[in-house]
UniProtKB/TrEMBL annotation:
Source taxonomy: Bacteria, Bacillati, Bacillota, Bacilli, Bacillales
Cross-referenced CDD domains: CAP_ED
Protein name (Swiss-Prot/TrEMBL): CRP-like cAMP-binding protein
Domain Cyclic nucleotide-binding stretches: 11-57
Record flagged with keyword 4Fe-4S: no
Pfam families xrefs: cNMP_binding (PF00027)
InterPro entries according to UniProt: cNMP-bd_dom (IPR000595), cNMP-bd_dom_sf (IPR018490), RmlC-like_jellyroll (IPR014710)
Annotated source species: Paenibacillus amylolyticus
The keyword Methyltransferase is annotated on this UniProt entry: no
Sorted UniProt keywords: Activator
Length: 192
């Protein structure tokens, strides 16, 4: 696990090996079982996460009780809510482990202390946020402009492993379609 984090820090910072090792000694790495809830819709988040291994699903439940999957976080993706500016700081989504997962767990209360101690961590975090935000913008624009079949084909190119990692009904929700529609699209593509 440490090798993955060292590689990641080496790519995004110029921290020395000693500094990287010191950071590894200070961060918290935890294993979570499939089904573990990291953040519950309505709770005020106190933690942020970085996926070393596994898959975390982000979903929300609307007023009528319907579930909508909005994202899946997999290896080398950060999970953080940026709602500090809101009056109601409660999470609008639930984050649950879709697989057994190994995550870096960050405490939002001590985050600034780590940034003060290791200034490049703040820069690394900014780079991660910028990359993530860019991907969200790109994915949202593509989602709006594409058909369900185009969304599925895009998923096959960009995130092919998700198909075998998450249940079809969750994947369908993420792609903005019913499980039946997803089945028809997959069947049609298999026949081509």
């Amino acid at each position: 696990m440490n090798d993955i984090l060292l590689d990641y820090m080496s790519r995004l910072t110029s921290l020395s090996i000693e500094q990287q090792e010191a950071i590894l000694n200070e961060i918290q790495i935890e294993e979570f079982n499939k089904g573990s809830v990291l953040i519950q819709q309505g709770d005020i988040p106190t933690k942020c996460f970085f996926v070393i291994r596994g898959c975390v699903r982000q979903y929300s439940i609307d007023m009528s009780g319907r579930e909508f999957t909005s994202n899946f976080y997999t290896e080398e993706q950060a999970i953080a809510l940026f709602n500090h500016h809101k009056i109601d700081k409660a999470s609008e989504c639930t984050f649950v482990c879709a697989e057994d997962s190994v995550l870096v767990v960050g405490d939002l209360m001590t985050e600034q202390d780590m940034y003060s101690k290791y200034t490049q961590l703040e820069s690394m975090t900014r780079q991660m946020i910028e990359q993530s935000f860019s991907e969200v913008q790109e994915n949202f624009a593509a989602f709006i402009a594409s058909s369900p079949e185009e969304r599925f084909k895009s998923l096959l190119v960009k995130r092919p492993t998700l198909i075998d990692r998450v249940p079809q009904h969750q994947l369908a929700s993420y792609l903005g379609m019913t499980p039946e529609s997803l089945s028809r699209i997959k069947k049609r593509m298999d026949q081509e």
